[in-house]
Design brief:
By secondary structure, the protein is α/β, with parallel strands linked by helices. Helices cover 36% and strands 18% of the residues. The chain has helices spanning 10-21, 34-42, 89-109, 149-169, 200-209, 229-241, 259-270, 298-304, 313-325, 330-333, and strands at 2-5, 26-30, 45-48, 67-70, 115-120, 133-134, 174-178, 181-182, 189-192, 195-198, 214-217, 223-224, 227-228, 247-250, 257-258, 280-283, 294-295. The strands form six sheets. It has a seven-stranded parallel β-sheet, with helices on both faces. Strand 2 (26-30), helix 2 (34-42) and strand 3 (45-48) form a beta-alpha-beta unit. Helix 7 packs parallel to helix 9 (313-325). The chain is globular. The mean pLDDT is 93. InterPro entries: Epimerase_deHydtase, Lipid_A_modif_metabolic_enz, NAD(P)-bd_dom_sf. Pfam families: Epimerase (PF01370).
């Protein structure tokens, strides 16, 4: 059996679907009861669990568990906190760090050797570059300000504890580091420093659907690595099945996409059926806040044979549109 903690998340729903399709026995946890009917239909047992409540782990099975995929946690995109008015640092540590320890202790006590969790790609923000592919050996170098800062710090601490359990208790835990992950998602809009805002993806998509002008700010050749949720889900399956899985893994498509390409693909894929298409405008004088970044994918390929199916942004968006038009998971995420 594989346990997925945080199966009511965007990546969690897709990951459980992949595991079921691979023939795995799965048990899931979450905090949103509207997902229970979805998992009942899949034949997957659903358990309500708060990550930071140690007693909740007593509900989970104590035998025949192959591993745990830990996707629950507090992210800035879900936190309606304005740091100019309030501070939620303790929440990040209570949920992301103590919650991870609760999960690890459940595993240690019951002889479960593997937890696979996640971390922020911003832990190496100082090394982001348009020319250098960052490996898993890159030293941490992150920013101590902004609404992502304490999230990154908390995930770093949680992942250090995961490695402590590896070395102290003989576990084989692993961590996936991924940047923006595309796919049918609840995060078309998200909190930015406590204020709900449309994502750049949503803005591009809505403009393309109406054949309105799409504006690209900053350097249109700025390049960023991205991932696709179905590839990430398959990687979790491969990783939990491999004896070689251990430590930190970059998890992207392995091919960067420029801002210009993003705009062009969105224009082409989401344009209206009557053939009208958005005009792409460029404003290089308006700074884009996120620089280029690229990540090496060699370790995941070597250790558990991961090869992304969706290698290009166009492939991702064509699949996204198919799922979007078919209302995939629409009722779950309440768009």
């Amino acid at each position: 059996m594989i346990i997925v903690i945080g199966a009511t998340s965007f990546i969690g729903v897709h990951t459980v679907t992949e595991l079921v399709n691979q023939g795995c026995e799965v048990l899931v946890t979450g905090r949103k009861n509207r997902f229970k009917e979805h998992y009942d239909a899949l034949g997957v047992k659903y358990v309500n669990l708060d990550l930071d409540n140690e007693a909740d782990f007593d509900q989970l099975p104590k035998t025949d568990v192959e591993g745990v995929i830990l996707l629950a946690g507090l992210l800035p995109a879900n936190a309606p906190v304005n740091l100019d008015e309030d501070e939620n640092a303790a929440d990040y540590f209570r949920i992301n760090v103590i919650g991870t320890i609760n999960c690890l202790e459940y595993c240690r006590k019951n002889g479960i050797k593997r937890v696979i969790s996640t971390c922020s790609y911003a832990d190496v923000r100082g090394a982001w570059s348009a020319t250098k592919r960052i490996t898993e050996e890159e030293p941490r170098d992150f920013i101590y300000t902004g609404d992502h800062a304490v999230y990154v710090i908390s995930k770093n601490a949680a992942n250090d504890v995961m490695e402590y359990y590896n070395q102290q208790h003989g576990m084989k835990n692993a961590v996936f580091r991924f940047p923006t992950v595309f796919g049918v998602t609840p995060h078309m809009s998200l909190f930015v420093n406590g204020e709900m805002k449309k994502s750049g993806f949503q803005i591009f998509m809505e403009k393309a659907e109406k054949a309105e002008d799409i504006t690209v700010f900053g350097n249109p050749k700025m390049i960023r690595d991205v991932g696709y949720v179905k590839d990430i889900a398959h990687a979790f399956y491969l990783a939990i099945k491999s004896e070689n899985t251990y430590g930190l893994y970059n998890m992207t498509a392995g091919n960067g996409v420029t801002l210009q390409e993003q705009a062009e693909v969105m224009r082409d894929v989401f344009g209206p059926a009557d053939g009208r298409r958005s005009k792409i405008l460029y404003k290089p004088e308006v700074q884009n806040n996120t620089p280029s970044y690229l990540f090496s994918m060699e370790k995941a390929k070597r250790d558990f044979g991961f090869e992304p199916k969706f290698k290009t942004y166009r492939q991702m968006m064509e699949d996204f549109k198919k799922d979007w038009d078919n209302n995939l998971y629409r009722d779950l995420f309440k768009y």
